[in-house]
Amino acid sequence: MRRLLALACALAACSSPSVDPGAYAKELPPAPELDATARQQADALGDAALSAAVAGALDAARRDADAALAIDPRQARARAALGVCGMHDAQAQTPPELLAWRRAEGDLRQAAELAPGDAEILLALARFYAADGHGRAASDVLTPLLAQQPQHVAALRLAGLLAYEASEERRARGFLARLHALVPDDAQALYRLAICEATVAERLPDAGARVQAWQHVVELFQRYRVLAGGDPQGVLGEAQARVRLWQLGGEKADEGELAAVRALYRAAQRLDSSSVDAVYGEGYASEESGDLPAAESAYRRALALQPTHVPSLLNLAALLASRGDRAAARELWQTALGAGLTPTERRKVAALAADD
Question: Rounded to two decimals, what is the model's pTM?
Fold first, then answer.
C-alpha cells in the first residue's frame, strides 16, 4: 500500500503544471504602506541583491533579496535577483531543470512589470532570453533600454553580440562602434566590429567607398592586434584585408606591400600552425610577387592540412597547368569537383578538367 501511495504521489508531482512565466509575471503583490526609512532599506537591499546575483554571489543575493521582499513584496530588483539566481540554479543541472528555469523567467518578467524602466532589470531579462536561445526577444528588451541609456556599456555589448551572432552585420556594427568608442580596449568587441565592417564593405556598390571601407577594416585589425597580439585571427584578418585592398585597386601590389602581407601570413602560421587560411594566404601573396616555387610549396602545405581546400586546389592546378603539367592539374580539378563548389565554379572546373 505504501508503495502504491508513493507511486501515486510521484505521478501527481510529475503531472503538476509548469510555471506559466507570463501569468506569473502579472500576479503582482499588493503595494504595502511603507515609511521612507523602510522603503530606503528595501531599495538598498534590492540593489545589493541584484548586484550580487549578477556577480555570481548567489547566497548573498538570495539573503538580501528575501530581506528586501520581506519589507516590500514589490521590490523589483530583489525579484530580479531571485530570477537570476534561479537561472543559475537551473543551468547547474544537466539538462536544465525546466520548472526552475520557467520560474526564473517569471521572476524576471515580474520584476520588469514592477519597474519597467529599470535598465539593470531589463538587462537581466535580456540575458535570460539570450541564454534561452531567444535572441530576438532579448534584442526587443534591449531596444528601449538603449533608447533610454544609449551609452550603457553592458547593454551595448550584449546587443552587439546578439546581432553579430545573428549575422546582422549592419545592426551589429552600430552597437559595436558605440561600444568601441566607450571601451576602446574591449578586444572581443573590436574584433567583431572589424568582421562586421569587412562584411558591410564588401557589399558597398561604389568602388571608391568600398576601398575606403576596407582601409578602415585594416586599421581596425591593426588596433585589435595591439590588444590581442597572440590571436592568429587578428593577424590573419589584417593580412586578408590588405589583400582585398590591392585586389580592389586593380593593380599589382608593390613589393613592399607584398612582403608585408607575406610576413603577416607567416606570423599567423607561427601562432597557429594548423591554419589553412594562413598557409594558403602565403601562397597567394607569393604568387602575386612572382615567387612561384614558394607559392607551389605553400599550396601543397595547405592541401596537406586540408586536402579539399578549394582555393589551394584551384591555384595549384593553375600553376601546374601553366607549366604544362596538365595531368597533375586535371587530378586537382577532379578533386575540387568533389569539394564544395558553387554551380558556376563547378561548370568552370568541369570544363577545365575535361579540356584536352
Answer: 0.86
